[in-house]
């Protein structure tokens, strides 16, 4: 029987999307076959200590989750990949959760992982990107789309039963389009005095000053702050939300867990289109731009009704049942199929 060692730089209670992904995966996996190596220290100088730590596990395959906040900008994950790929009989598989939207420096660092036995990417777009721009063989890459770590509520609420008019959900940090959310929130507040507007997500201590500055700048928007809640409560909050605004600067894509969580709980999603937005997703949200978002969101909230929401929810259900793995157990099965 093959045995697999999962390596990650972040794991709950760390705040990291890939860390949450890894935890959900291992919860669904057969732990007789899957082990976890998690560390918060990834300096190059710890290479030999890492080798010693890893040698204590029994495994035929190493699976490296990348990137994680815990790795930082350290190249030790790449060095371990090179070592175990070239100088041992272990098979190394790397799961790249991001590639096309990373900086050129980060992309070049990620290319070192392609020396591994195989690379798993999270969308067909990312796979095609690696092939087109870096000439990576299609046979050495697999695709396993993500599923949400936020489960759907048992009963999805109708439009009129939802108490939150507008929310943002996701990691609360720079480069997530939060400035656009606050602009839209302020515009909505000026036009609908009693609107309930919520900022929902996880916040790292190093980003609290950034969030506090936004809250101070847009104090008149009176945004309700709901931080670091359990998954079940987050699902309930999304099920209470009429409109969820996801203003990703690079546009909506299949690797956005916050989008999957939102549609799993039936909220109307407003977002931007980008180069990596697949055709199927383009029918599943209200498309807008940074400049038009405030007016579009106000219009959707003012004119929204259950009939319109249900039309979107039917598309959500079709995608969740046919476009991505149906469960974390299926994700594990897809990994093991690629790892053979």
Keyword list:
alpha/beta, Rossmann fold, 2 domains, 6-stranded parallel β-sheet, 17% strand, globular
Task: Explain this structure.
The chain is α/β, with parallel strands linked by helices and 340 residues long. The chain has helices at 17-28, 47-54, 76-87, 104-111, 124-134, 178-191, 208-217, 231-239, 257-264, 293-303, 306-322, 328-339; strands at residues 4-8, 34-38, 61-66, 91-96, 118-121, 141-143, 164-171, 197-202, 224-227, 241-246, 268-271, 286-287. It folds into 2 domains: 2-146 and 324-337, Rossmann fold; 157-321, 3-Layer(aba) Sandwich (Rossmann fold). Helices cover 39% and strands 17% of the residues. A 6-stranded parallel sheet has the order 2-1-3-4-5-6, with helices on both faces. It has a 6-stranded parallel sheet with strand order 9-8-7-10-11-12, with helices on both faces. α1 (17-28) packs across α12 (328-339) and α6 (178-191) packs across α10. The protein is globular and about 65 Å long. It starts with a strand and ends with a helix.
Strand arrangement across the biggest beta sheet: 2-1-3-4-5-6
Unreliable parts? none
Q: Any idea what the radius of gyration is?
A: 21 Å
DSSP summary: helix tally: 12
In CATH terms, the superfamily of the largest domain is Glycogen Phosphorylase B
Q: What spatial form do the alpha-carbon principal axes imply? A: globular
- Overall strand count: 12
Main CATH class of the largest domain: Alpha Beta
CATH architecture of the largest domain, by name, is 3-Layer(aba) Sandwich
Structural class: alpha/beta
Averaged pLDDT, please? 95
Strand content: 15-25%
Q: What oligomeric state is this?
A: single chain
Helix share bin: 25-40%
How far apart are the first and last residues' alpha carbons, in Å?
11 Å
